[in-house]
Backbone:
């Protein structure tokens, strides 16, 4: 297929409701308008050591948006098909703010006094432990709602709020920043780029920030050709399904039954110390014949097996296991010399080669499940992945999903290659610490919640890792999850 990785040209038109208020109208790229991304609101919650000046944080972010990241101040309409990006002269703190920014100063109060359950402040165990998730931690703002909350005025973007909502909680010894927005705007890798440039604006000069790719650039341009015979709707890729007609009715009915049986959901965080990761990897490697398993393979397998042992589903229920891959690095020729400049969604779901039942997962060894993950990774090729992306983009009306109609979905997304913990905001530091980012949480929300989407968010600085997942509340009190040590209530 023809790649257009070096073509950064954008497709823009203007929306001008008043002489002094002008928007560039930028089409949202098709991969962001699939149901893999479109329904979700995402929040990144960031813990910095030390008291950071909220005014400096606000002013640097506002300046970054005006000078480098106009897209951060974009508005949406109910069509959810275009970003309405204000021209720099249109921004105004009074009438068209660049960002929704709120703060709460806790004065001389320490963060542990207000929130003693922050997990990374505990003395960490040498065993796997469970900790309160983002919804249970004070001063953290979890993802809530759906993308429609960003367009209360369906056809008038000038009346709608910016996509980016930032809340800052300051303590004598820490600052917690929560950044919320629709998933159609950016993924975790894109957020890493935004955060790094924000840090540059805080610590030195906004002009030193690198900035994102050109407005309107679509690295996947050329894919999604309906006239390509390979993209015939009947050629459904392995592991994918079309959720239309009777299949859609069945899919929704299954979801309704699940919500009726398990209406409440709860986020929790896992901590895996390095010693346990080593032990699990050694255990799994024992059944892997001449194949080296990665830490991610083993963590995925552990979480999937633990979930299967803890969920209330019958043993015959299908379990669709999925992990996302970053197309920036799988298809680098499409994303040009600086793939990280593309801040919008570039992750694509990959279902495991084989679908198992919940009962099978309960009886499979850790190594057997990890090998299924590794086999799926090994069979991936750039050409095969691009063909699947091509088909998905060509068939949006088929409502394609990387799972079957029946059963349950379980996905694990790893952010460990990202350099979140290298970021600091020392330029806004007023005391009480060193201004470093030491912990990040991710949370998602949609009309259907974000159940069974596990985010391996960051290392712990000592070779271990943190990850979070939302599950039906009852799952945490059953099976393997019930037996994991709890910390922080």
Residues:
């Amino acid at each position: 297929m023809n790649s257009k990785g070096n073509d950064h040209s954008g497709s823009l038109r203007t929306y001008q409701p008043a002489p002094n208020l002008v928007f560039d109208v930028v089409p949202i790229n098709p991969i962001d308008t699939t149901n893999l991304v479109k329904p979700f609101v995402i929040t990144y919650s960031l813990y910095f050591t030390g008291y950071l000046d909220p005014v400096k944080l606000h002013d640097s972010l506002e300046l970054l948006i005006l000078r480098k990241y106009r897209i951060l101040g974009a508005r949406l309409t109910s069509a959810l098909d275009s970003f309405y990006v204000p021209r720099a002269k249109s921004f105004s703190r009074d009438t068209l703010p660049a960002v929704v920014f709120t703060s709460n100063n806790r004065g001389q109060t320490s963060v542990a006094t207000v929130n003693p359950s922050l997990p990374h402040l505990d003395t960490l165990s040498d065993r796997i432990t469970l900790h309160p998730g983002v919804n249970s931690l004070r001063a953290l703002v979890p993802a809530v709602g759906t993308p429609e909350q960003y367009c209360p005025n369906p056809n008038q973007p000038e009346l709608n709020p910016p996509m980016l909502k930032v809340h800052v909680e300051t303590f004598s010894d820490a600052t917690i920043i929560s950044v919320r927005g629709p998933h159609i705007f950016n993924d975790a890798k894109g957020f890493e780029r935004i955060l790094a440039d924000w840090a540059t604006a805080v610590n030195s000069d906004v002009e030193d920030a690198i900035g994102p790719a050109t407005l309107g650039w679509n690295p996947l341009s050329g894919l999604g050709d309906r006239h390509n015979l390979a993209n015939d709707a009947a050629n459904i890729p392995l592991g994918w399904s079309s959720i239309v007609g009777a299949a859609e009715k069945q899919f929704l009915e299954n979801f309704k039954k699940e919500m009726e049986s398990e209406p409440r959901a709860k986020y929790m965080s896992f901590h895996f110390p390095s010693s346990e990761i080593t032990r699990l990897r050694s255990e799994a490697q024992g059944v892997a014949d001449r194949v080296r398993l990665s830490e991610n393979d083993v963590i995925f397998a552990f979480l999937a097996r633990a979930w299967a042992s803890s969920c209330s589903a019958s043993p015959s229920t299908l379990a669709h296991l999925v992990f996302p891959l970053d197309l920036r690095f799988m298809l680098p020729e499409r994303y040009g010399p600086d793939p990280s400049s593309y801040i919008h969604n570039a992750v694509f779901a990959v279902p495991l080669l084989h679908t198992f039942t919940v009962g099978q997962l309960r009886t499979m060894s850790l190594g057997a499940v990890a090998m299924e993950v590794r086999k799926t990774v090994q069979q991936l090729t750039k050409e095969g992945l691009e063909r699947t992306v091509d088909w998905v983009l060509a068939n949006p009306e088929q409502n394609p999903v990387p799972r079957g109609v029946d059963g349950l979905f379980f996905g694990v997304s790893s952010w460990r290659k990202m350099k979140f913990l290298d970021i600091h905001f020392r330029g806004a530091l007023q005391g009480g610490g060193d201004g470093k980012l030491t912990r990040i949480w991710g949370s998602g929300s949609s009309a259907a919640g974000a159940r069974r989407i596990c985010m391996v968010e960051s290392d712990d600085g000592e070779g271990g890792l943190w990850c979070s997942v939302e599950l039906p509340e009852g799952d945490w009190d059953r099976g393997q999850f019930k037996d994991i040590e709890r910390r922080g209530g």
